[in-house]
Design a protein that fits this description.
The structure is a homotetramer. The first copy, chain A, contains 18 helices and 23 strands. By secondary structure, the first copy, chain A, is an alpha+beta fold. Chain A has a seven-stranded antiparallel beta sheet with strand order 3-2-4-1-10-9-11. The longest helix of chain A has 15 residues, at about 255-270. Chain A is globular and about 70 Å long. Chains in contact: A-B, A-C, B-D, C-D.
Chain lengths: ~475, ~475, ~475, ~475
């Protein structure tokens, strides 16, 4: 997610910034831009580099722009759900980019439908616009603030109006959002600081939980739509563990440094005698270096990775499809043969891929495999923006660590403790959401039952 | 380059094997397959995953197949030059895949043109087919052998006839070519062993310099079209240094191990006091680990790399194009800030990219930058299959190492010595071609002058 | 526009029926289909044969379907405006196909926007869905009837709900809509009878002005949402003159027969001594035969037409673009040279094309050109579904017939009289809308002024 | 086929001229252009408007151009066979466009293959280039003349060399080829005069049988490669009957006039009492008018035709595919119901389409159907450029006219006599090839048997 105000190359900057944040969503990509009066949109299914041609960028050429890359979900990708959403309402055009997940979207949608509103997507984001257009809100002096107070869940939002950008975060600060500034004075906003780096913008500060930052011709303005001090922050620790890019800082901490620390902590919690530390590419490399530094075991390279995996494989037969899985990682036989290995993983979700990799190391002649995971076991669903599969198919659900070890076929297995993980984070432990590991949700998502049942219906539609 | 004989999923295997060897050529990809009687072809510009759809693979379905990925050259990519070439001559259909470069292609073409032959490509590969079809050769009992004796330069070749594959290498063994076998007994041939790994084939042996290996319904047959003992081998050392995949073995040596050794040797030749060893992604990581192991300086991660660079950028304006260069590598500021760095590069060609990276490290706060290159300076052109730019724009041409250091903006710079590099290779030094480093060519390419002048004209057309 | 209920090949039937009615709209094509529970949609810009691939038809495979071809308008074609529109509202999914034009769309939209509704298209059709979803209507026993009473203008509508099709016409019956039945008993609805012919359906009857016909599992049901007897019918006479296909029957009359009669009447009103009657292809051929039969002058062929004009030309330079205009009609020099010609045109709008054709005949050696137009001069805009250009650029605006004759460069020119035209129609003259010829609109579109001003703003958006 | 020399918009002119001649070939389209030094090519499968985008025309921009539309054949369309062929031989580049069929292509190809030549297409045109490149010819002062004397069969050829166009016809003049001149003095050549008309070129004269016309910077030059007076002309009468566009003149006669005459002659040969003459669209309309004029029976319109058949249908199921056949022609029920019809066809090949149309007329209520075909029964194959199906599936093979009548389901059936047809042609009967009707071939294609057997093998490959 990215927005930039009043820059001659706003659209190119947005394109670059989306590309740098491609890891945050590969399902669809879109840009809306404004010439101060009229908003233009282009979006499509696929990667940023697949969706946009030079002609599209040219047609979008305008000094104000926001863009979005959408998360790949379990449902079939749908062009109508691609963001930014752009609609017309009584006050003119409005476009919205949303990162996060609204847990009361179903309820809100139901209410508006009963009032005669019609919906054209199955995305939870659409209700935000209906809130904005609600006469109760739109006729008030600060329609956005009034609208936001009705949302429950996680949301980092960019709202593009013809003449300004409004950037905001939920009161818990679950998803990141930061502000940057370019050499020419233009302000921009982004999910991660990597987006600022690639366009040579300097980091200004994070958008605060509960804050609305307006960027318009008079510069930057701040206001709060809630008293944020009444909320306990719940920054998503999984951004640190896996989701964000290592070179980014999110929640005021560099991700690479956090992962190095988690690797070191893992070495302290679960030491082992071995010849070589290797990482499962690519992200786990930070933690692997941390582990190696702490343990004194040399770090090496056990796999090579293809540079050409931008597009997925097309394999007409099952046999060849099985082989295709191997393509993404090639074991370097000579590096691991006869060695006692410490293998570092960032996190293990379903376990199937990890199991395959461990088998490949074994086939290549590894003498011992000691798997160390630089995060705790994932045993709970996320309702705030990470698309984990159903808990029933997580490898750690209903399995002890010993049973997981057996399933993965390794000689020993240790996960980082929740406490150890939080020790590596910059803020006090209470400021993070660890729900996927601990089951402790920052917002109550389970009662009343009826409401949750409704959500379930909606979740099928929305996520 | 890959070929496989008599396998129910020959075409899928070829697709996977080409994908695994995509680093050997990104300009075009093609497959020819045979049902023992009739050869079918499909080829296109782009990456393997871009060229082939499931429909194409289905239409190619046949038990015998060869495939090729073509090297990006300085000339404009041309669909007519994509391989395998497929033609009809007096003895029926023949398809050819060629890896290497023929230095007498111009002369041969001229001769055949004067005899009334017509040409449809500007590729040097086409003359091979004209040699095969020459009545002087085609009526002899072993037309291929007779044809090959007329070729000068480097060539690893796969010749597909409706009922067999012929695989051969030039007498110097400049480019690699190996034989594998699948569980069902089918034989295959590939440029690198990584292609065997991805299809679960076991490595049998290399095709020998000067050897022709025939794969047909009776299995594997070998013959030699020259007395190879009369030639001194000249295996391309640049395959070890940079070109081949680390998990492959070429010239009977694992590439990763060779690069580890080169890194260690570099540490011995050019030690330095520093806090951290980092690699310029991705290949240099092997050498970086070698340097770290030998020096005792911890290895770390200085850059993150995008996973989504399968397609190149499209940037309408120059300013944004400059920014786009940065996209491929993002410095992890926190990892390098305030540090004395040993930066490992595999090789430096033009120097512009390396220079940019060094600048990025400096901007991110690196205290000292000690660049160590795990190969000698490249100062000479290659006429045998590596597409270096014109020697005049190589950074090492006409510059001392000190001048290069200044240009790249680093605190110290050392290259691996030619002797040190050869020490890391498995065979005796005399068996490698080091021409790009040493200027010593295994085949005379400079006399007689007239001939070379002609070649020059042809080189414009061919390479 | 076409709909079909409960047929195993409903989607293919719809595809064929849209193709047969392609002359009714070339801007976009779309189909929605239902499996009795869930509606699926595919639409795109272009001709039916360009928009749909076999894969699309396969994905749409369902027993209930409606489809639409959209009229090319002066505004830029917009994928978001392509029909059928499909949305979700409180009662589930609904898809709408609309043929016609709503003159109060702007007012209705404004009202709903003030109530907080949001809009995603600039098409007038979208307000129909907002009316349906309005709690005032949707909670009544017959929401559709209540909604329709709020529409002003022309509309033949197909409303697809998951389990039924509702087909309706405005109280004036401005646009056609008929019912057919297939051999297996399935009912279908279509704008023109040609759509029934191509799928071997027999004509049952027209949907009546003010009637709603429901097709569901119990067959065909009829009701009236207004007392239609209180409205004077206003069938668009331009459907007879030009718009509908000659083989269709609309308003219970065969179009070819009507045009034959108009040609005969034209011969009675404006006889001339000549050698040959020729038609300007292709529609005018009916009238030309009528003129020839009545006058006794033999009918001949003066032009040949290209069979390959499905896609428009792409011509980079102006000079070549001018030539391209000639491509659609080639004069047969030998047929017209030295002849006194009666040239028959259906209607003349801008006059530029006709002028070009007359020039071409002159160049080819025609001795005399007597242009006879089988309809009256067009001098007024249409607000009910025919996309005439702005009246100011109609050739007949502000020009006498004599001045038009001069402009077109012909020896004599006669238009069919309004009375003569209406004599050829099957019903009494008062049952037709002749506004484009006579300026007499069936619905008041000019007062109150304020309202019309608003419409003007909306017209910019909608048409 | 079209060529133009030295015109600033040569490529656009070629595009237009190919479009105007699209009826001569729908399989592929291609253009080669030259800047006097270098020839550039673009070709693709499909219609002219599908193959070329503005970008292609821009890339081809050059003052000299030739283009070709290729005939749809029974074999699968093949991009490698699309014309113009462009190759490089000892004297540089050469491109060839060929309209016709070479009956000794197989023999020539065999001979060249034995000399070591390789072939890349399965088109008979490729041997022409091998003849040109043959040292025996290419070193003579007039290589083209020497090459042409070796060709047997029909050929109208355009040979593009970097600095000139050579246009030639076989000694029998089987296929047409004419010369035109533009206002700026540029010369052009085309298969049919319609191509001259659309670019405002005036007709100069036909290229003569056996003549080579060179267009270069010095204008137009003529020479003869054979003594044409020794050959009896054999102009393809089927061009007059069906193949050429009515507005063209071929063999110095306007096609429309010829067809009018054939219609009149048919009325004299086979009169009948009837109410209405109708044509089976579109070409038969000329003959229908002729029949009506002669018989005094009024001509009418029985079918309407779709304007949108540029692309063929895609119909996943058989049932819908059967319906799709109906799409191309819609009977106007009201025009034919209760009438005694004279139905005019140009020619009947397989009979299946005609049979379907007659059935449709019957279903629509025709009282009597008297089919009159404005050409004789086709009972023999064509080896000179018309792609009839195998004689065994022609409707007239092994059937008497009475049996054909029964099969087609009409009340009476008459064909035009061969003598009557030839009476309508401008030249003496002996100057036409009537082989498909009479079995009398202008060139012996049946002996010696061995040779023909070889041709049969080649025909499989080539046509």
């Amino acid at each position: 997610m990215f927005g930039i105000y009043d820059h001659p190359e706003a659209v190119e900057m947005t394109y670059l910034a989306l590309f740098a944040q491609q890891h945050r969503g590969q399902e669809s990509a879109g840009i809306c831009s404004s010439d101060h009066n009229q908003i233009t949109r282009y979006a499509g299914l696929g990667l940023v580099t697949e969706v946009f041609t030079p002609r599209h960028l040219e047609q979008l050429r305008n000094p104000i722009a926001v863009g979005h890359v959408r998360y790949s979900t379990t449902g079939s990708p749908n062009i109508h759900n691609s963001q930014p959403l752009l609609v017309e309402y009584a006050r003119g055009q409005v476009a919205v980019c949303h990162n996060g997940n609204l847990i009361n979207a179903g309820l809100l949608r139901h209410t508006y439908e009963e009032q005669g509103h019609i919906f054209q997507t199955t995305s939870d984001t659409e209700v935000i616009i209906h809130l904005l257009a609600d006469p109760e809100h739109m006729n008030m002096s600060d329609a956005i603030s009034h609208s936001l107070t009705h949302l429950q869940g996680s949301f980092s939002l960019l709202v593009l109006l013809p003449d300004r950008i409004e950037a905001t975060r939920d009161p818990y600060g679950i998803r990141p959002l930061c502000i940057g500034r370019l050499a020419n004075g233009s302000y921009c906003v982004a999910s991660e600081t990597i987006a600022l780096d690639v366009i040579d913008a300097s980091y200004v500060r994070d958008v605060e939980p509960g804050e609305i930052v307006t960027i318009d011709k008079d510069g930057l303005h701040s206001r709060f739509y809630v008293d944020a001090s009444r909320y306990r922050p719940a920054h998503c620790i999984f951004e640190m563990v896996y989701f964000a890019d290592p070179s980014s800082s999110v929640f005021r901490q560099n991700v690479h440094q956090a992962r190095l620390a988690m690797g070191s902590q893992l070495a302290r919690e679960a030491p082992v005698k071995a010849d070589l530390v290797i990482a499962v590419p690519n992200c786990a490399r930070c933690a692997a270096i941390g582990y190696a530094n702490q343990s004194g075991i040399p770090v090496g390279r056990g796999f090579t990775t293809s540079h050409y995996t931008g597009r997925s494989f097309i394999m007409p037969s099952q046999a060849s499809r099985d082989l295709a899985v191997k393509m993404k990682l090639n074991v370097i036989r000579e590096a691991v043969g006869g060695k006692r290995l410490v293998v570092i993983e960032d996190s293990v979700v379903r376990g199937t891929t990890t199991r395959g990799k461990m088998g490949a190391l074994r086939t290549a002649g590894a003498k011992e495999i000691h798997l160390r995971v630089a995060s705790p076991p994932i045993r709970h669903g996320c309702y705030f923006g990470i698309d984990f599969p159903d808990p029933s198919i997580l490898v750690a659900t209903g399995r002890t660590v010993e049973q997981i070890r057996e399933y993965l076929g390794v000689d020993s297995l240790h996960y980082l403790s929740i406490e150890g993980m939080l020790d590596c984070a910059r803020m006090v432990p209470s400021k993070y959401c660890t729900a996927c590991f601990s089951g402790k949700y920052p917002i109550d998502v389970t009662t009343p039952t009826e409401k949750f049942a409704l959500e379930r219906r909606q979740l099928r539609l929305f996520t």
